Amino acid sequence: MGKGWFKTHRVLWKKPIWTGSTPEQKVVLMTLLSMANYEYRQWEWKGKVYTVRAGQTITSLASLQEECGKNISVQQIRTALKRLEKYGFLTNESTNENRLITIVNWDDYQQYEHAETTNLTTDQQGTNKAVTTKKNYKHYKHYKNKRIRSFAYANPVQEYQLDLTKGEAL
């Protein structure tokens, strides 16, 4: 199984496919979500070229059982696959060597909001920096006036600078 993360949209928890499932069926569902590829992928294995799209995985019942963990039988996996297929959550194409499982609404469950988040974050940083700069400037003015008065008496010839971000003398 690949590294990284996947999303589970909250709408899934309200659907009959989740609310009416046994714990074992829920384990199979979540395992399949975690196994699905997040992007187009192509590779060669035993002389045969395999291609999968986002939301697909090529596996076997034995591999799926291993990924699901303890106490999940092959029969429970078959039952879960039939149920998930009946509800339109996935398609299951089986051959004598492997099976191609496709999460039907993969894009709905894994929508990427990166562009919106980036713009929002950039705008927030700009706004927050402006506010922070004003606060630092006020602090700087107070600190500067206070330090110059006391510093001028102690050492009138020596120059000094303030770091505006920290309000400390350099």
* Count of separate structural domains: 2
Describe the global form: globular
Q: Can you count the helices?
A: 7
Largest sheet, described in full?
A: 3 strands, antiparallel
> Any idea what the radius of gyration is?
29 Å
How much helicity do the residues have? 40-55%
Can you tell me the CATH class of the largest domain?
Mainly Alpha
Terminus-to-terminus distance: 52 Å
One letter per element, helices H and strands E, the order comes to HHHEEEHHEEHHEE
Uncertain regions spanning at least 5 consecutive residues = 114-118, 155-160
Structural class: alpha+beta
CATH architecture of the largest domain: Orthogonal Bundle
Within CATH, the superfamily of the largest domain carries the name: Winged helix-like DNA-binding domain superfamily/Winged helix DNA-binding domain
Describe this entry's structure for a reader.
- With about 170 residues, this protein is of the alpha+beta class.
- The chain is built from seven helices and seven strands; from the N terminus they run αααβββααββααββ.
- It has helices spanning about 10-15, 15-20, 25-35, 60-70, 75-85, 105-110, 115-155, and strands at about 40-45, 50, 55-60, 90-95, 100-105, 160-165, 170.
- The strands form three sheets. The chain has a three-stranded antiparallel beta sheet with strand order 3-5-4. A two-stranded antiparallel sheet has the order 1-2. A two-stranded antiparallel ribbon has the order 6-7.
- It starts with 10 loop residues before the first helix and ends with a strand.
- About 15% of the residues are buried.
